[in-house]
Design brief:
Largest sheet: 10 strands, mixed
Radius of gyration: 28 Å
Structural class: alpha/beta
Strand content: 15-25%
Helix content: 40-55%
Number of helices: 28
Bound molecules: NADPH dihydro-nicotinamide-adenine-dinucleotide phosphate
Number of strands: 33
């Protein structure tokens, strides 16, 4: 094309990025790689090939990690652990800093290699993936310096197993490795089968940075290699990013093992455009939201929700913009979109589109050309869909946007939340009041106002609901790599033998059967059966309802209706908690007497348990308006507000001992943070909590905030664990019960805390009147609000 022709059609010329250095690096390794274990590369063994999805050329041969390889890597990480932990924070910081510097020095090589291996355009790998990865190591060099003082009373997990997907290979690696090392862990990481190359180059960087051997180990392989890491007995924590399906498998495998777990899973994030949005900006934002990285982004704004009044013009402008997107050679600097990661990904998306067509949707493909070979797809828009349509509910993980419209803000929120996922959302409106009203109502870990895909090492990233749990980035991300020191020192919890009645109840008193407490009322148990309450010395002292599945279902229903409690001012919640404390204080003698009667406590011990329960209610009344969020220091002109939000409905199963105090110690932080609760009190001494109904009723607790179901703890715990209306579950009981609830809760990936079958001393105020349960009662939502005139 000559210059006159270029002026005539104003088309782009080719702007190729050189790949000699990347090819040179691959050739230098003979295009064959082993694993990186104990500071060195192992010889190449049988495995698979890494293919450039744009050109279909073979890039290198990769070893498929076996159980033996994983075991070697875990052993190396275990040996390195004490040496790594013996270093000062400053020493560890220097290593993280050195890694950041090395990454920066070789940034172009990383960017080119990433584009060749993954298919993403160089514009993105060069300007987003690699700089963000570098930033992560710098940021966490800082955490290495400060972790001991900022997280006093915490220790690193030990050996971490980390498994990452193929969409942001180096970036996901840095999100996993930087905080793990900063916290003092060693690790074994498995990159995705499709994209192992930058992880292997990173291993070389670790050597060049002088990182002690065994601290970072990279084992390449397929799903089974990942499973071998998850199943390895000597791994203390698993950090996984990938599909919700595999996340659920990992949740089941790790259940009851005591392994720490954080899961970053899929999404179907809403992109909400109000009629008062700056439409052109919203269109540009949308291009970035769904066609960045070919749409292979977990937080992609893949569900457009547009105000009905601007739908026609918006879709028209969007199609015009889509037609201008350039899809092609990822190493061409003026391409907008590259290749998808592999032919199978293209096939899967085509299949989903076929299914969508059968369900009656309209498919619009951008007019621009795509290369004839390679894994390319056109930017695609789906219209004429309803919320029930498979393309609206399923994650497509490609360059496909689905569009729906809404009539008013309430409908926008309802549609946005109508998904099993909860990773991110974008809200577009020039009316900041409206945008800030919408942000807290969306159930997702991130909300971007008038922007999208903003990520930074200082701001936590992670989801609500089936998008997983745990955060990556910021202080909230560091917590995912640390555990409380005291948890390691607990003794096993021993279940009491069923109590046997030695004597018949005194017939002179009026017969009294405590019912359940649901939606602010005492409710007869569904089963029609009662459960005898027998004192520790064998006296039959009353009966309570034998709760069943239906009672739990009613309790959860009432608790969901009580969720408005979370949007009440913290001051109001504090007042109610103080009031509960005050009313319990009036009746302290009576409660102490009840505890003596139930558990043969000494007068002093019974009085102490009641006094501590009152103190705990006061402690959490005090916390209600003090346990709050932060504003992160992100490197753009934006406020990134880390808001603390309640989990929703929390199921609480109390242990047998500390019949009053244990229930109160969990109930109080849960409601202080705005959750509503379904509580199963001690199953052999439930009367302490059924007596508490009257305290609840006289303390102005709104209906549905506290619901109490009596019965067999482990049976009711199973129902709570399986119930999709329960957002989090806290279980204090025996080891078998702890394993069972973790396994049973995989359905909706609810966040589960258990005592791991350990005996907790609930009278220890240092542990149970502080932030231990507050952390578990809340999740962090980062709301990004850019500013500038
Ligand atoms: P997968 O869940 O299939 O794979 C993720 C990683 O897990 C890969 O390394 C994979 O190995 C490995 N793996 C597969 N099976 C097992 C197993 N049974 N046990 C342990 N590890 C296993 O997801 P994809 O790689 O296909 O990535 C796409 C998905 O990941 C999308 O759903 C996307 O939403 C989600 N994702 C979420 C992100 C987030 O931050 N929330 C970020 C990026 C992606 P192999 O490569 O060999 O299959």
């Amino acid at each position: 094309m000559n210059i006159n022709e270029i002026f005539a059609n104003l088309d782009y010329g080719p702007a190729p990025e050189a790949k000699d250095m990347a090819n040179g690096w691959l050739d230098g390794h003979g295009r064959k790689f082993g694993h990186f274990i104990d500071g060195q590369f192992t010889p190449h063994k049988k495995g698979f090939t890494s293919i450039n999805p744009a050109t279909e050329e073979e890039l290198a041969r990769i070893s498929n990690g076996t159980k033996v390889d994983v075991d070697k890597a875990v052993k190396a990480a275990r040996v390195a652990l004490p040496l790594w932990q013996a270093l000062s924070g400053f020493e560890r910081a220097k290593y993280l800093y050195a890694i950041a510097r090395q990454l920066q020095k070789h940034s172009r090589l990383f960017a080119v290699l990433e584009s060749m291996d993954n298919g993403k355009v160089i514009r993105e790998s060069r300007d987003a993936d690699i700089p963000l990865a570098v930033r992560h190591f710098y940021h966490h060099a800082g955490w290495a310096m400060h972790v001991e003082t900022r997280f006093k009373g915490y220790s690193p997990y030990g050996v971490c197993g980390q498994i990452i997907p193929w969409n942001f290979p180096l970036l996901m690696l840095s999100w996993k490795i930087a905080p793990a090392l900063a916290a003092g862990n060693t690790l074994v990481l498995k990159p995705a089968e499709f994209t192992p190359l930058t992880a292997l180059l990173f291993a070389q960087i670790c050597s060049e940075a002088g990182l002690p051997k065994g601290v970072v180990n990279i084992v390449t392989g397929e799903g089974e290699t990942g499973a071998a890491i998850v199943e390895h007995e000597d791994v203390d924590k698993i950090a996984f990013t990938g599909s919700t399906e595999v996340g659920k498998i990992i949740r089941k495998t790790t259940a009851g093992t005591g392994k720490g777990l954080s899961l970053e899973l899929g999404g179907k994030s809403p992109y909400i455009v109000f009629e008062n949005a700056d439409i052109d900006s919203a269109i540009e934002g949308l291009v970035d939201a769904i066609w960045f990285n070919q749409g292979e982004v977990c937080c992609a704004g893949s569900r457009l929700l547009v105000h009905e009044s601007i739908e026609t013009i918006f879709i028209e402008k969007l199609k015009a913009r889509m037609d201008k997107l350039r899809v092609g050679d990822p190493l061409d600097k003026s391409m907008d979109m590259g290749a998808l990661v592999a032919p199978i990904q293209v096939q899967n998306i085509k299949k989903m589109l076929e299914q969508g067509k059968k369900e009656g949707c309209t498919i619009y493909e951008a007019k621009g050309k795509i290369p004839a070979t390679g894994s390319f797809l056109k930017p695609t828009l789906i219209t004429d869909v309803s919320p029930a349509h498979s393309l609206v509910s399923e994650e497509i993980f490609g360059p496909v946007l689905v569009a729906l419209s809404f009539r008013n803000p309430d409908e926008a929120v309802a549609l946005a939340n109508n998904t099993k996922y909860g990773l991110a959302a974008s809200v577009w409106s020039e009316n900041i009041n409206l945008a800030l009203d919408i942000a807290p109502r969306i159930k997702s870990g991130i909300v971007w106002i008038n922007c999208t895909n903003q990520l930074d090492a200082s701001a936590g990233f992670g989801g609500y609901k089936e998008s997983g749990f745990g955060r990556e980035g910021g202080a909230e991300g560091m917590v995912s790599y640390l555990k409380r020191d005291w948890e390691a020192k607990l003794k096993p919890y021993v279940l009491e033998q069923p109590r046997k009645a030695a004597e018949v109840k005194n017939s002179s008193s009026i017969d009294h059967t405590a019912k359940n407490y649901i939606g602010g009322k005492q409710a007869r148990g569904d089963s029609g059966y009662s459960r005898q309450v027998i004192s520790q010395n064998g006296a039959m002292i009353g009966t309570v309802a034998e709760g069943n599945r239906k009672d739990i279902r009613n309790g959860v229903e009432a608790a969901r209706k009580g969720l408005g409690w979370g949007s009440k001012p913290a001051h109001f919640r504090a007042q109610i908690l103080y009031y509960l404390g005050e009313n319990l204080d009036y009746r302290r003698q009576e409660f102490a007497e009840r505890l003596r009667q139930l558990n043969s406590l000494s007068a002093a011990a019974a009085k102490n348990e009641v006094d501590l329960s009152i103190q705990r209610l006061f402690a959490y009344a005090g916390w209600a308006d003090k346990y709050d969020g932060a504003v992160h220091n992100v490197p753009i002109r934006a406020i990134a507000a880390a808001m603390i939000e309640p989990m929703g409905v929390i199921g609480i199963v109390a242990p047998q001992n500390f019949a009053l105090l244990a229930s109160i110690s969990m109930l109080a932080p849960a409601i202080a943070m705005g959750n509503s609760v379904v509580l199963v009190p001690s199953d052999n001494a439930p009367l302490a909590m059924t007596d508490f109904y009257q305290i609840i009723q006289t303390s102005d607790v709104p209906d549905g905030v506290i619901n109490i179901i009596t019965g067999g703890s482990n049976d009711l715990a199973k129902t709570l664990a399986e119930h999709d209306g329960v957002d989090a579950l806290w279980f204090a009981g025996d080891q078998a019960g702890s394993v069972m609830v973790e396994k049973a809760s995989t359905g909706n990936l609810k966040q589960v805390w258990t005592n791991l079958g350990k005996d907790l001393n609930w009278s220890d105020s240092e542990k149970f009147a502080g932030d231990y349960f507050l952390q578990k009662a809340t999740q962090v939502k980062n709301v990004w609000i850019p500013y500038g005139a």
